């Protein structure tokens, strides 16, 4: 019984932690993009070399955009967390 309570607590903590929530969102997006790229590659394998090159370039572009967006979102979240912590410390007078 205690183990199931711990699992529930871990799930709740994971949902409350903004970084964990963001990373979970990123994992879902990566999985979705991987499925999309596999579908695109299968479609392009019709023997047309030009279509394969275009598809590979499009996949590289999508992956680069996603990676850049994820890095920006993580950096933004870290800045927000730092500013929040700073504001809390500033509001506490010792």
Tell me what the structure shows.
It is elongated and about 65 Å long. It is mostly helical and 94 residues long. Helix content is 90%, strand content 0%.
**Strand fraction band?**
under 5%
Q: Helix and strand string, N-terminal first?
A: HHH
Number of helices: 3
Task: Give the distance, in angstroms, between the N- and C-terminal Cα atoms.
Answer: 43 Å
Helix share, percent:
over 70%
Q: Any low-confidence stretches, pLDDT <50, length ≥5?
A: 1-14
The total of beta strands comes to 0
Query: Cα-atom Rg, whole angstroms?
Result: 21 Å
Q: How would you describe the shape?
A: elongated
Round the mean pLDDT to the nearest integer and report it: 85
Largest sheet: none
| Structural class based on helices, strands and sheet pairing | mainly alpha
Question: Features of this protein?
Answer:
94 residues; mainly alpha; disordered N terminus
Topology:
Layout: H1 2-16, H2 18-44, H3 49-91
Brief overview:
The chain has 94 residues and is mostly helical. It has helices spanning 2-16, 18-44, 49-91. Residues 27-56 are annotated as: Disordered.
